[in-house]
Write a structure and sequence with these properties.
Elements lengths: L1 H22 L3 E4 L1 H7 L1 H38 L5 H55 L3 E4 L15 H7 L3
Helix pairs in contact: 3-4, 4-5
C-alpha cells in the first residue's frame, strides 16, 4: 500500500513537472525600429521623402521671396498711392500670405500621407518576416525591444539577425 502511495505521488509530481514545462512559453525579442531602419526599402523611402520635402521647401521659399518682394515694392510706393490703392494692396499681400500658409499646410499633409504610404508596406514586410522566423524557431511570443517600448530587460533570444537573413540583408 505504501509503495502504491509513493508511486502515485511520484506520478503526480512527474505529470505536474511535465505540464509545467510544456506550459512555459517560448519568448524572443527584436528591435523592430533597428530592423526597419536597416531595410533597403526604408532607405529608398527616406530618399523619396527627402526629395519631396526639398521640392516643397523650394516652392515655399519661392512663394515667400515673391511675397517679400511684393511687400517691399508696395511699401516703397505707398506714399505715392491713394489710401484705396494701399488698402487693396494690403489685401493682396494678406491673400498671398494666406496662400503661402495654405500651401505649407497642404505640403505637410501630403508629406504625411506619402510617408504613411511608403512606410506601411515596409512595416508589413518586416512583420511578416518576424512572424515567419519566429514560427520556424518555435517562438510563441516576440516582444518589440525598441527603446521606449516598455521592455526593460531583453536577455532572451534576439531574432534581428535571423530576420535580416530572411529579408536577404
Amino acid at each position: 500500500m505504501k509503495q502504491i502511495k509513493n508511486l502515485l505521488v511520484a506520478a503526480i509530481l512527474f505529470l505536474g513537472a511535465t505540464s509545467l514545462t510544456s506550459a512555459q512559453s517560448k519568448v524572443a525579442h527584436i528591435d523592430t525600429q533597428e530592423l526597419i531602419a536597416a531595410m533597403p526599402e526604408m532607405k529608398s523611402a527616406q530618399n523619396q521623402l527627402q526629395k519631396l520635402q526639398k521640392t516643397y521647401e523650394a516652392d515655399i521659399q519661392t512663394m515667400a521671396t515673391e511675397l517679400q518682394n511684393k511687400m517691399k515694392q508696395y511699401q516703397a510706393e505707398a506714399s505715392t498711392k491713394t489710401d484705396d490703392v494701399n488698402a487693396q494692396r494690403a489685401q493682396e499681400v494678406q491673400g498671398m500670405r494666406d496662400n503661402v500658409l495654405k500651401y505649407e499646410q497642404n505640403a505637410q499633409q501630403e508629406m504625411g500621407k506619402r510617408q504613411e504610404g511608403l512606410i506601411k508596406p515596409i512595416m508589413e514586410k518586416a512583420r511578416l518576416a518576424i512572424q515567419k522566423v519566429a514560427r520556424a524557431k518555435g517562438y510563441q511570443y516576440v516582444m518589440d525591444s525598441t527603446t521606449g517600448s516598455g521592455i526593460i530587460l531583453a536577455d532572451g533570444p534576439d531574432l534581428l539577425a535571423d530576420v535580416k537573413k530572411e529579408l536577404g540583408m
